[in-house]
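User: Fold this; tokens only.

Assistant: Input:
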Amino acid sequence: MASLLGKVQTLISANLHALVDKALKANSVAVLDEYIRQAENNLEDLQDALITVRGQVKTLERKWKTYQAEADQLDADIDRLLRAGKEDLAMAAQTQYNSKVDMAEQYRDQYEKQKAEADKLGEARLKLEAKLTTIKQEREHLLALLELAKSKEIAAKTIRSLDDLQGIGDSDIARVGESIRARLDRADSEVETYADRLDVRMDEVLDKGRLDDQLAERRRRLGMGE
């Protein structure tokens, strides 16, 4: 029990800023995940211990009140026995009364101590639950910050790379551009050349066709067959 309470107190007293700083330095929320794991495990153990101690408290309270009620009954019996002149019975009852009172006092003392222990465990559980909730919320916030930091780092790296590329390879890029434009000029020249040749051939074909038509007309007039 003392060991469990010590672990819980250590977790409760853990410095949130220190945990966050460690997570930021490591660029990871693993340190918070470990805290959460330990806290949840200890919360389960604490809850089990609290159930056990509270059960003991109820048992001690019941025994204390039982012995106290028996002692009160004996106290009244002793008075009646003395009034009846039964000294021996009164003495025996007094002996029992003293024993019952002693037992009642012992159980009352144990009850109060166990109740204080149960209250202490209950307070520790509430504090640890509150700390655990805070840590979980901080973890989500920190995770979002780390993701944002990574995005900004990537953006900064990209911009830096573009800055580094400025002014580098301009002549090579210009040479490639000139080469491409030269190829385009040559291709245009070839297209024009072939187009001119095609025009000449088309003209030749059209002239021959005209001559053929003229000769065919003459043959028809002369009555010559094809």
